Amino acid sequence: MSSKLHVLNSSEEAGRSGARRPPGPLALELQKTMLRLKGQYMSEDGREVHYHQLRSSGLFQDYEGVARQLCDCDLTELDDNEKKAFFVNVYNALTVHGLARADPLPASVLELDRFWALTAYNIGGHLFSLDDIEHGVLRGNRPHPMADKPPFSEDDPRRQFALKSCDARIHFALVCGAKSCPAIQVYSSSNIEQALTTAAESFCSQEVAVDEGRRTVTTSKIFHWYASDFGSSERQLLQWLCGYLPEETRSQLERLLDSAHPITLTSRDYNWQLNSDSRSAL
């Protein structure tokens, strides 16, 4: 599999020194560079990326230099909060990097062959695809929704970097390149807990609708694909939602949950069009 990966931060020099760099300064440099990219080549709300301007910029070349340094990063020094923030940032940066390097730029990320399975970085001498980061590391080595086995086997050295448990809020921080994805933000280990709560609240306020009269709750497909991350039953998923909805919507959902009558849970269509705008084609 590794021979088929599209490793975007490989170079003749990367990883050759054998030295392992502490992750803290590199994580900070990654955050700063991502913030500069976001300020210049993304919409203010983080939902659109201007890929054409981005990939021809000097700032993007600077970012690629930072990405190459990931090869020498010592991941063993990261605690869980640092690891969570680090890998969320790396996932989003790798997504933007992979799409910016796509030529021609697709109308939808689905047009790119196995984009999430094959787009990868060398991090600390280990190869991580987008799928490896999401399902292996951030979801605590849980299977992809379309798979029955976890990404990292028992003898896979990358398994040591998996989070001990799955924090469902990460689904509202990871950006897959589609318009229905959450907004791109930049995270740090010091703000990761509050930032993930804010990201979940923002996403749920926009993507969850409660029709009390019809006893229907409509959500993003994310809640359908990853239902087990939010609870072991549909009711537990709805209870999880109550913690992140605006007050009025939460009250409506709580009244439905307090009733003995069934609730219909449905999902709206997912917009897979690329998270770019008209300026990206200039």
Question: Would you mind describing this structure in some detail?
Answer:
- The chain has helices spanning 23-41, 51-55, 58-69, 80-100, 115-118, 130-138, 192-207, 222-225, 227-230, 234-242, 247-258; strands at residues 6-7, 119-123, 126-129, 209-211, 216-219, 264-267.
- The two termini are 37 Å apart.
- With 282 residues, the protein is mainly alpha-helical.
- The longest helix has 21 residues, at 80-100.
- The chain has two domains: 2-197, no CATH class; 204-267, no CATH class.
- The strands form two sheets. It has a three-stranded mixed beta sheet. Strands 4-5-6 form a three-stranded mixed beta sheet.
- Mean pLDDT is 92; it is low at 278-282.
- The chain is 41% helix and 8% strand.
Globular, elongated, flat, extended or rod-shaped: what is the shape? Answer: globular
Q: Count the helices. How many?
A: 11
Proportion of residues in helical segments: 40-55%
Uncertain regions spanning at least 5 consecutive residues: 278-282
Cross-sheet strand order for the largest sheet: 1-2-3
| Overall pLDDT confidence | 92
The termini sit apart by 37 Å
Q: Tell me the major beta sheet.
A: 3 strands, mixed
Q: Which band does the percent of strand residues land in?
A: 5-15%
Number of strands: 6
Oligomer category: single chain
SSE string: EHHHHHEEHHEEHHHHE
SS-derived structural category? mainly alpha
Rg, Å, rounded: 19 Å
What is the number of independent domains?
Answer: 2
